[in-house]
Amino acid sequence: MNAAARAVVCEPGSGPPSETVxxxxxxxxxxxxxxxxxxxxxxxxxxxxxxxxxSRCFYxxxxxxxxxxxxxxxxxxxxxxPILLADEFKADLAFDELGxxxxxxxxxxxxxxxxxxxxxxxxxxxxxxxxxxxxxxxEIATTAHAGGKExxxxxxxxxxxxxxxxxxxxxxxxxxxxxxVSFGDALRGAVEMTAEAYxxxxxxxxxxxxxxxxxxxxxxxxxxxxxxxxxxxxxxxRLPWRLTSPSTSPRSTPTRSSPTGPRRPSRxxxxxxxxxx
Length: 277
Hints:
Blueprint (H helix, E strand, L loop, with lengths): L5 E4 L8 E4 L7 H13 L19 H15 L6 H5 L6 H6 L2 H9 L7 H30 L9 H18 L9 H17 L12 H7 L20 H5 L23 H4 L7
Antiparallel strand pairs: 1-2
Helix pairs in contact: 1-2, 1-5, 1-6, 6-7
């Protein structure tokens, strides 16, 4: 099912027919069916999945909707099983074409052990990344040939920056940035950030730097953030020390003794680039 389809074509004047490989986006329906069957059989297996796996990672459109429904039921504390979910898809044409309730029952009957849920989820997520890479690569090639939207000239450097932005977004979030997100995803992110801020001292969602003005502006330091601080010479020479933990600050680093008296710490002991969180 994952193998690329092959077709025989004959070009005018090319002599005998030649085989041409028709490229197909990478996917694995068996892995998707296995994971969905595990979740329908044992809802507790959902806790073993990472947050990076979302409904868009599934290749089959109905599998996307089915996973989204299972996820919604479990997060609400409700039971997600074939009979209850079948009522939600009565008007779904794809659900009827696949066999209706019988299809969901088959997923449960052929479900592998729940201990393998994370392995199937990892395979599905990896294939979704590969499909995104294929799509981004196609867009890069099309833009490079056309020169930009509506055949308007677009500098090559701008094309490179746009490609880098899409690849960076794919590496960080598992999907290239589309500009818009659903209200549910945006609301979930806002609630999670608010909960983190409520649980931290100072009401910040990130890690405090002890610099009050900076914390108020950026809300603390967050994972993957690149914060650049600029200033005139001699203004922030000791700032990296303030950003380190007390155990790694130069004031708490033991000095090396010498015949003439205590010496300052070695460069390896206080060099800030190795201590920043």
